[in-house]
Amino acid sequence: MTARASAGRRHWHPPIPEDRRRAVVGGAAGVAALGVAAKFLLTVVINAPAGPPVGGGDAAAVGATAVAGVAAVVVALTETDPVSGVGLLFVGVFGLLSLGPGAVVAPAAVAVAAGTTAVAVAHRHRFANARGIALGTLLAALTVCLASGVGGWVALRPLGSTLALVGVAVTPAFAATTTRSLLGGGAAFAAVVALGLSLPFVVGAVTLVGGGVVGSSLPVAAIAVGGAVTAGSAALRRREWSLLAGVVLVAFAGVPAALPRAVPFALGAATFAVREGRR
């Protein structure tokens, strides 16, 4: 990538042609989203008491993290803003490095959080509204959760879990919601509440094992599911593939207290920022 000065700002010339950038972002984030969703489902199945003897949970986590890291690098190659591009490279490169020796974990956590924040700052002119609050919630969740997990401040884990769920709940702010999508989200909320009241141990196990949720309440989890369904259905109806991928990434990544969850969560938040910056 090369850079030039224009109107007081520096711009990169990304190697991916302009007419293909939207499709590349949607495709890269979409592949990462599929990997994260598959890892979530496999984790739940492996840990189910009456489930079949299925292995590969660790391999799935490594694979999903690697795919999300590569996807972040690919999205970086579509960015014309150097700050956003470098931020995405931080998320991708350090996300991949986190799969190596344990000594890299703490610097990688800082780099992932800082890189995601850089992407948001680069596109801040597009977030002077409810979308800014939604993105800020996701960034706060990422930072607090990494501090509670990688940073060792375990007392912050319940707060981080709640922030992550609230961040997922407010993803409809990025979507053009319709009555049908709102009804779908409401139905999903009611279903989770009903299931949680009738089978509390099952719902608790799924949120803990699949999502890494600690110390949050059933209504907050239900609101998160309702928000994800609302935003996802609205994105699917309008064929907003990058938006759909972002929703799946932050919803199925779970509480980003460890890097295997934080890297896809960060990619989802960054995807929202990149999408808004190009609207």
UniProtKB/TrEMBL annotation:
<keyword id="KW-1133">Transmembrane helix</keyword>
<feature type="transmembrane region" description="Helical">
    <location>
        <begin position="241"/>
        <end position="259"/>
    </location>
</feature>
<dbReference type="InterPro" id="IPR058381">
    <property type="entry name" value="DUF8068"/>
</dbReference>
<feature type="transmembrane region" description="Helical">
    <location>
        <begin position="23"/>
        <end position="47"/>
    </location>
</feature>
<feature type="transmembrane region" description="Helical">
    <location>
        <begin position="59"/>
        <end position="77"/>
    </location>
</feature>
<feature type="transmembrane region" description="Helical">
    <location>
        <begin position="182"/>
        <end position="202"/>
    </location>
</feature>
<feature type="transmembrane region" description="Helical">
    <location>
        <begin position="208"/>
        <end position="229"/>
    </location>
</feature>
<feature type="domain" description="DUF8068">
    <location>
        <begin position="28"/>
        <end position="272"/>
    </location>
</feature>
<keyword id="KW-0472">Membrane</keyword>
<feature type="transmembrane region" description="Helical">
    <location>
        <begin position="159"/>
        <end position="175"/>
    </location>
</feature>
<protein>
    <submittedName>
        <fullName>Phosphate ABC transporter permease</fullName>
    </submittedName>
</protein>
<feature type="transmembrane region" description="Helical">
    <location>
        <begin position="89"/>
        <end position="121"/>
    </location>
</feature>
<dbReference type="Pfam" id="PF26265">
    <property type="entry name" value="DUF8068"/>
</dbReference>
<keyword id="KW-0812">Transmembrane</keyword>
<feature type="transmembrane region" description="Helical">
    <location>
        <begin position="133"/>
        <end position="153"/>
    </location>
</feature>
